[in-house]
Specification:
Elements (H helix, E strand, L loop, with lengths): L1 E5 L8 E6 L5 E5 L3 E6 L2 E6 L35 E4 L6 E5 L8 E6 L3 E8 L2 E6 L2 E6 L3 E5 L2 E2 L1
Length: about 150
């Protein structure tokens, strides 16, 4: 059986490729009906009804990359905060994106003071979870909580 990887979360959207049964991929963003996945560097949407979700160690499906991608001699910093509060200094709410880019689609906004779970922080972006939904927020729009203390 083949599963169509689609350009957008719609059964009428363009098919990017077809995936064989058993293909493993990385979940980028999961919603109630559709999941944005990364399959070998190609992002697309799949219907959740046809997927089996499981959790493995971080980076399990990531290709091996050198520690210093930009060649400046410094490794990219990652934080271990488990939670953060929305704290946008320029507005009373902050945007949540479907990818870690200013050019990505805006999924919605969260008001200042809302606490989100931080799944990963790197490169100025945070992969967050809030009420069962995942997305990306700018690091500058969050105030990190370490061991129950806001930083």
């Amino acid at each position: 059986m083949l599963l169509n990887l689609r350009e957008a979360p719609s059964t009428t959207s363009e098919v990017l490729t077809s995936l064989s049964n058993g293909t493993q991929m990385k979940v980028v963003l999961r919603s109630k009906e559709w999941t944005l996945v990364d399959v070998g560097g190609m992002n697309g949407y799949l219907l959740n009804d046809y997927l089996e979700f499981w959790t493995g160690p971080d980076g399990l499906l990531d290709p091996e990359e050198p520690d210093d991608e930009d060649g400046d001699g410094e490794e990219e910093e990652e934080y271990d905060a488990e939670y953060a509060k929305v704290s946008c200094e320029t507005a009373d709410k902050a945007e949540v994106f479907d990818e870690d880019s200013d050019d990505a689609n805006v999924l919605g906004t969260l008001k200042n003071g809302i606490q989100v779970q931080v799944l990963r922080t790197t490169g100025g972006w945070c992969h967050i979870s809030y009420q069962g939904h995942e997305g990306y927020m700018r690091e500058q729009d969050l105030q990190f909580v370490f061991d129950g203390i806001a930083a």
